[in-house]
Structures are given as structure tokens and as C-alpha cells.
Amino acid sequence: RTTFAKTMQDFNAVYVPNYVDTKLYKPIARKPDGKIHITFPRRASPERGYWLMSDALPPIMEKYKNVVFNFIGFAHGDKIKNDINRLIKLFPGRVNHRIVEPDDMPQVYQETDISLIPTLYSEGTSLSCLEAQSTGNIVISTNVGGLPNLIIDGYNGILINPNAHDLMTALDVV
Asked: CA 60: distance to chain centroid?
């Protein structure tokens, strides 16, 4: 039971937690291809950490020739679309962008080694984070909003401060 403060009336409430269907979002055995697959599994927008990730990506791609990077999701605005195209041209065949249907996301995560959740602004429970964890990805996330409630730093993911240097360092360590 709970009480609504304005009227002080009691009413029954049902708590429905965020969750992931672990029958769909589960690790699978993959044939090794010698590559490290990194995914940004969310809308490419400033609040979701797009620019932070965009700054950190080139040095990692230059240092590690076996990294393949995937943007999965809608790109917000021409500036971000143009920047994604710049990265695709800068690293041909190694940087990709696509939008997939929600039902295809389990496969995206199953083809991913590292998922980046570099949120800059407040975020509640991140479905992207839960899906990536459930699928066995290494998750690198900023210590913003509800993300530290999902990640125990060094145990089931890596928590970083929301800046490009910390993201590059975390990617370099993994």
C-alpha cells in the first residue's frame, strides 16, 4: 500500500521492475574472428554521450587495428549524422552505422564484445545496459544517473567519469 500525498488517500500500487528477457538476451558461443566488436547501442545524441564517444573513438581505432565499431540506432541531427559519416570514411570497413528493429537487438549484442553506455545526463535504469550485461558484453558506462545501480565497477562492468580521456583509458585496459 502507498499513500498519495495530496489527498492522503491510500491505494494499492504494483511495482513493475525493469527487466530483460534472459531467454532472448543471453550469451552465445561465437566463432572467433580475431576482432574486437564494440557497439554504441543507443540513439546517437548528445545526452547519450555521442560526442564523448566520438572523441575517444579515433585514438582507439588507430591503436587497435582489430577493432570494429558499430553505431546501432537513430542519429539525432545533421551534425551527428555527418560525424558518423566522417568516422565511417576515416575507418572504412571498421566503423558501421545501422538502425535495427527491437527484435534484432539480441543478435546485435551477441555479436558484440564491448558495449558503450557513455551517458552524460541523468538516466534512470538503462535498458541498453541491462541487455548488454545479460548478453555477456563488457559494459563501459559513465557513473551517471541509475547506471551505478546496475554496474559494480570492475565486477560486471567498468564505470568511468563522463569524459573522453576516461573512456579511452577504459577501452585501452579492456
From this structure: 17
